[in-house]
Specification:
single chain; 445 residues; globular
Length: 445
């Protein structure tokens, strides 16, 4: 059943509610993953960076295959399988912190997460039509960020009161609730005539998606946006705890992003509805290097910064401003990007193409997490790796008694690196837009 205006079928709203719980589970674990891998499982910064890269990258590379599988299996069966994997994977992380067990649990959770993404976005596509698709994806993205906000908000007291090793148990509970919602309430629209009927037909669809050169170029360029946004989980938690102190709240810093998106994504999507999707994406690519640059400027602020009667650390002030700019950029990028991707899909292959669309995050977080480990070790090292004298100097500096050790003198340049990456992506997007517009004007008809 097609949508009309802002009215959508029941399956649309059920799918979005399921997505809220899945995102709460995912971001509860993801905001803590870097700390979990070092503090609970005993990995180094570099090892944790590569493991985080593998976990997040696996989710997004598998979406290409899981999207095709979901089209064949049917979306309801696909989601039952997905949330069974997620509940089992997160629960295993919470109970078993031995290194091999952690790696196995992350693989199981990644398989489940990969199946969810194209299935829910495919349902949104099937429950809307070309006239309502941008609105449908703006509502979907608002629900994604409500889940993100709630997941990180609950993860903070769990981490502080019970320990970072118990955060995955909360996520397992949220995944179990989503599984029950799928089993009892989810009845997606299915197109039996259009659904691929054989492995050969599915493979043909995958090869067809890969030959969309223009779409692949956009995937690679927009990966830079998510590479920087992914530092909220790869670099930021360790960065703020090492630079501000153990009383810092990286979960709430990161929650500035979904808060901005929840408040602004629907009105901004409506505002830019007449712009071409690539133009809206260009605005996002222009904002993302500014966000990283903002985060790098904390040394310009001297001492505590008084805001609304509170004395805030310079790192806190600039981090919150930078994260707010990231959220604003997401409002311009994500709904229009998903709309663009869904319009590339032939009938019955929405899961496949929306899985393909998520490859930008695969490239982004695979590279972003790996780079993060090396940058942290170089510019903002684990205090446990410092000499006793340097550790004492750092603790004194956090209490306002003297400067930080020399090991942290250039810590803010971690964000300068990502600002340069974002600026390069913005230039590439402008070139992409100019070239594709010229070719479209030259095309016959």
């Amino acid at each position: 059943m097609a949508a009309s205006g802002w009215r959508f079928p029941r399956a649309f709203w059920v799918a979005n509610t399921i997505e809220l719980f899945e995102r709460a589970a995912y971001y509860g674990v993801f905001i803590a993953i870097s700390l979990f891998l070092t503090d609970a499982a005993g990995f180094s910064d570099v090892e944790a960076g590569w493991i985080g890269a593998g976990f997040s990258g696996l989710i997004y590379i598998l979406t290409f295959f899981s999207g095709a599988a979901a089209d064949r299996m049917g979306f309801r069966v696909a989601l039952i399988f997905a949330f069974s994997c997620l509940a089992a994977g997160y629960a295993s992380l919470g109970w078993f912190q031995q290194k091999p067990a952690v790696l196995a649990a992350l693989v199981v959770a990644a398989v489940g997460g990969a199946m969810v993404k194209p299935t829910i976005t495919g349902t949104v596509a099937r429950c809307s039509d070309p006239a309502t698709r941008a609105r449908a994806f703006s509502l979907f993205y608002m629900m994604v960020n409500l889940g993100s906000f709630s997941g990180k908000a609950i993860a903070k007291p769990v981490r502080v009161e019970l320990g970072v090793d118990r955060v995955p148990l909360y996520s397992a509970g949220a995944a179990l609730i989503a599984l029950l919602l799928v089993a009892f309430f989810f009845r997606p629209p299915e197109d039996a005539e259009a659904r691929p009927r054989s492995a050969r037909e599915t493979l043909r669809g995958m090869l067809g998606a890969l030959t969309r050169v223009r779409f692949l170029a956009l995937i690679l360029i927009t990966a830079a946006f998510w590479m920087i946004q992914g530092q909220l989980y790869a670099s930021m938690p360790k960065y703020v705890i090492r630079m501000v102190g153990s009383n810092a709240s990286p979960e709430w810093y990161a929650n500035v992003n979904p808060l901005v998106v929840v408040l602004l994504v629907v009105p901004i999507t409506h505002l830019v509805r007449r712009l071409q999707p690539v133009t809206s994406i260009a605005i996002a690519l222009g904002l993302i290097p500014l966000s990283a640059l903002c985060m790098s400027l904390s040394p310009l602020l001297q001492g505590s910064v008084p805001i609304l009667g509170a004395a805030l650390h310079p790192v806190t002030v600039m981090m919150v401003l930078g994260i707010a700019l990231q959220g604003l950029g997401e409002c311009f990028l994500s709904p229009r990007y998903l709309e663009y991707a869904s319009k590339q899909a032939p009938p019955g292959q929405e899961g496949l193409y929306l899985g393909y669309a998520h490859l930008n995050v695969f490239f982004a977080w695979l590279a972003g997490f790996a780079v993060s480990g090396y940058l942290l070790e170089w510019l903002c090292p684990d205090p446990k790796t410092l000499s006793a004298a340097e550790q004492a100097q750092r603790l004194a500096a956090l209490e306002g008694r003297g400067p930080m050790p020399a090991a942290y003198a250039d810590a803010h340049h971690l964000w300068t690196v990502f600002a340069v990456i974002g600026a390069a992506a913005f230039v590439l997007l402008l070139l992409f837009r100019a070239v594709t517009n010229r070719r479209d004007r030259a095309a016959p008809g």
